[in-house]
Each structure stands twice: as structure tokens, then as C-alpha cells.
Amino acid sequence: MVSRPSLHDDAKREYAYGPALGLPDTKIGAFTPELYAEAKKNYCTVISMKNDWKTIFAFE
Question: pTM, whole model, 2 decimals?
């Protein structure tokens, strides 16, 4: 199974949290800079809610 972490970076459509990429840190479900780097290092596809919205929710 391929891991595809979702980066919640779209406050306009839902919410944004990080602290990866300078996003606000929520302490719950945080997407840390270390997690982002590890995902990229291991060739995981990081799904951006902001940039990939139309791919994820193609029916809209």
C-alpha cells in the first residue's frame, strides 16, 4: 500500500494546519516539517488539499 499523506493547507475550503510549510500548528493531527521531509524522502505523494482539490473531489 502506498502512503499518501494529506496536507491540509486550504483554509478557504476547509482548514489549514501544519506546521509544515509555515502553516499553523494545531498540536492535534499536526503535519510537521519532519513528516513532510520524510514523506518526500520516501517518495510518498503528499496530497495538497489546496492544489489537488479538483483531483480529490472531481465531482464538484
Answer: 0.58
